[in-house]
Amino acid sequence: MSQNVYDFTVKDRRGNDVSLSEYKGKVLLIVNTATRCGFTPQYEELEALYKAYKDQGLEILDFPCDQFGEQAPGTEEEIHQFCTLNYGTEFPQFKKIEVNGENESPLFTYLKAQQGFKGFDKEHKIGALLDQMLSQADPDYASKPDIKWNFTKFLVDRNGNVVDRYEPTTECKVIEEAIIKLL
User: Fold this and answer.
1) Disulfide: which of 5, 74, 93, 143 matches 78 by Cβ 3.0-4.6 Å?
2) Which residue out of 37, 65, 83, 172 is catalytically annotated?
């Protein structure tokens, strides 16, 4: 088992290997994303966080994932163009991956082992719907560490330790407060 996230190598959107050790000393927010999801507008909030804190050591690592309702269609280049044109994203975007199952990214296997599912905010307009949908498919879903939907976020401190997990229904200001503490 890896000691921290720096032990992993991932593929950038062009297929080149990137060692996460390149991000040593940075605060990381690692996100599985999708371009055709009810949460897709979170790209705007993520980019605002990135612009506000990148000079203080924040990096946001974007991993497109098509596992939830096939909401990340297209090639890596099409996804990148969508994000830059619609949300002005500048943070690093990586190759499309799977976050659950037989072909899941080893990075996400590690992240989930460090921080399990935290529960949806049922006050969020989509939170109650997701809870209902997932509990119908699996009444025990909440006890499992799997990624439940797009825009699940993992917060990693400057030493490569996974310190928190945020479900897609978590308010951005909660995440921002945690990032500020780590910076």
Assistant:
1) 74
2) 37
